[in-house]
Amino acid sequence: MAKHSNGRRAPKPIMGAPPTHQASGYSDSGASTTRRALRGFTPISVSPARDIDDNNLTLRQRSRALYMGAPVATSAVRTVRTNVVGTGVVPRPRPDAVALGMTPEQADEWADAARREFSLWASDRRSCDAQGLNDFWELQQLVVQSWLMSGDTFVLVSRHKASAMRPYQLRLRVVEADRVSTPWEAGSGVGSVAARTLPAAVTTGRNSDNGNFIYDGVEVSPTGEVAAYWVCNHHPFEVGDGPTEYRRVPAVGTKTGLPNVLHVFEAERPDQYRGVPYLAQAIEPLLQMRRYTNAELDAAVIQASFAAFVKTDDPTDNPFNEVGDGTGAPDADESRDENEYEIGPGTVNFMLPGEDVTFADPSRPASGFDAFVTSMATQVGAALEIPADLLLKKFNSSYSASRAALMEAWKGFRMRRSWLVNDFCRPVWELFLSEAVGQGRLAAPGFFTDPAKRAAWLGCEWIGPSQGQLDPTKEINAELAAVGAGITTREAAAVRINGSDWDENVARLRRENQALFDAQPTAESATPTEVVQ
What we know:
By secondary structure, this protein is an alpha+beta fold. It contains 15 helices and twelve strands. α1 packs across α2 (71-84).
């Protein structure tokens, strides 16, 4: 047996025991507690309620402040909003003609009628918006922008009295994320009692009437299904708006099964019931970029002022010992404090004997300013899925690089548009069709009795703004080649190129061709198509 240096025998190793001097797997890499770089890196991730809900109030305030005060943050939010929604994501009804026993022509006729009825409701702001401020397309823009800044947004479904010119009762009310929160009294049981304390003071509570947990305003059943939402009657920081009261809104109607609340958000983790602001992961670099930019801007303004400082042995010779531009006209912004000096364009300051002004480095902006901001924008854009070129609206790359950046950005735009359609547009379409069919304005046999037929009638494609083209000639020729090879369809190509409806394009071209033919009486033997060719 081996001996230690002090002459004692070393303990005999235990057979089968793992070696104490070795680490395997992640314990020797990412999970190591002995490596110098990882010793102090001991984060603890708990449930979404603690990680997300407890921090959401702070994240919302910071995200909104950056949106309102940091140009790069403003660009990030508006770039997503403009590309996801633009002027509106419009419905294109696609009823399943085979399942409904209809001919394609009958299905197209029904789709046209449904689209006209929807436009009657959606294009009138007083018909679709409970506040009467926005039409349906503008509500989409509001929903997306609020969702990005706050992490999620809510749309309350209500019914108003119909009129002869506005036959539909359906109304939508967009509610900011802050107003959906857990009442203070939920800690001891809220029931139907109105809370009269500051909202968002607590995030997790319990409904004493049914025992359901409430996670930041979202009431959840024992099975984990969303049962209701708790909506405050005003914004939590609104002063002088009366007592604070909460209303419990069931997630779906008990009789109709249709949603009462539409919740638009992006889930990051299982068991997550509230969203995280879009800018959350980039708050710190965005804030530092704003500070750095403001510092450089202030320094450049000071450098451009060309202020003059006059030193004199007898300050009493200077009238009023004042600062100014030499015109003698009083200025309310000029200081009369003899210990204060102004720096502004054309300013002359008289200084006392022994006083001096020294600037450390008047060279602004710094030579590395643009490169640093671009580098930081690249990292921020990577987190937000927006290439730096698109984030800064600065396109200096080659065609191939710009196209690759645009294609990568559009993966994120399409994904978020899909979420918007699933969380907002499709539920609204179902709510609208239910009322239109119920009123008899649209005929849809089996809509309320057969779930399969209901799904067939609800078929609808939602079309938003297209990606755009960097080189129209190349990209249109590529689409034509793909259509000729059977890889894609003309309808899909029309959507990708400019977001148009191929059927409407064909109908319009038919009318235009006929108009051209009628305008050329000498071409009597030609057909409308031959005239155009």
